[in-house]
Design a protein that fits this description.
The chain is of the alpha+beta class and about 70 residues long. The protein has one helix and three strands; from the N terminus they run H-E-E-E.
Length: about 70
């Protein structure tokens, strides 16, 4: 019984994690320091070519392309 409950909990954790990262799965963001605007950092996606600016540390969390993620 404990094994079944443990497997169900593990499955739920994996399902939640996979759903949360679904929007960025196809994007591979690269920082482009030549295009920075003050405190905004410019990122370009190597997969779809979308460009985005962020004020937070790290790349954007979602795909900015009109195309669905691969």
């Amino acid at each position: 019984m404990h094994i079944i409950i443990g497997l169900l909990i593990a499955f739920l954790i994996v399902a939640i994690y996979a759903r949360r990262n679904r929007a960025t799965r196809g994007c591979r963001w690269r920082e482009d320091r030549s295009g920075d605007r003050g405190s905004l950092r410019k990122y370009r996606c190597a997969a779809c070519g979308a460009e985005a600016f962020t004020a937070t540390k790290g790349p954007p969390r979602d795909c900015k392309s009109d195309l669905p993620p691969a």
